[in-house]
Amino acid sequence: MIDALSERISLRIYELNDKKNVSQAVMKYALVSVFTNTITFILSCVIGILAGAFAETLIAMVLIALLRTLSGGYHLQSAVLCIVVSTVVITVIPFIPVNSTMVIVLTLIAAVLNFIYAPSRLRGVTRLSEKALQFRKWLAIAIILSNLVISSDIVSLACIVQAITLINKSRRG
Residue 172 falls within a domain, yes or no? Predict the structure, then answer.
């Protein structure tokens, strides 16, 4: 559905663009990403509001998106599946009870997974230099470790969820 819509829109834009400075495939990829992220954001916000956990849902969503941008992670093959899985994970996080000891444990595990696996699935698909990728990895680790001071259950769960998506048996960061 999202792929087909993105295909039609990108093809039309490409046909109307005389300069042809961006390929139709690149436009389609960008549109799929925009649609997927926008729908996930809207659904998560609506569910967060209806469930009475808007702020917590927003914190989880923003943190996962930020860490994902910095350190990478696994991509599901279907945009619709990505929307469903992401929305479910983001909206469930505020309702998972975590005690203060587990906040520390989850935060440390997330930092270790980032140390081992980040950047994950970013090499070869980004123009960032190796130095920039390493900087982003360490920035992600610093953000995660800040939760040792903040001590937020939402932050610890969002960090561990994102860190799990980094795991790639065939390659280490």
Answer: no
